[in-house]
Amino acid sequence: MASFILAFVFILSGVLFSNEALAINLGGLDKTASVAGMGSGIQSPLGLAGDVTGKIISYVGVLFLCLMLYAGFLWMTAAGDEKKIDKAKEIILAAIIGLVIVLSAYAITRFVGESLSLRNP
After folding, report:
1. What is the value of pTM for the model shown?
2. How is the chain split into domains, by residue range?
3. d(Cα 47, Cα 40) in Å, to the nearest integer?
């Protein structure tokens, strides 16, 4: 089961990080490229931090989903075994706490980033 989750995360990482490589600018398409978000490739530090944060949030979401599926599988296959049910409950609780911590960090980072970008035109 763990190897399946690991393979899924690696495949998803390939999908998440391959979008820049799949979109190329063939010249004369500067307006289209800028509308598509490809621009000149030069990005402000806040924009770069936002991109990195967004990708980290994506990974955390996938990890949360995998943990919830694993915990649900444990619970459903416990067949009344209290140890397995307690382990599944612990995994669910840990996953929810981790998700809340990461989303709180994202909210704080976004608030600070927007505050700094408004003061520095």
Report:
1. 0.58
2. 1-42, 44-121
3. 13
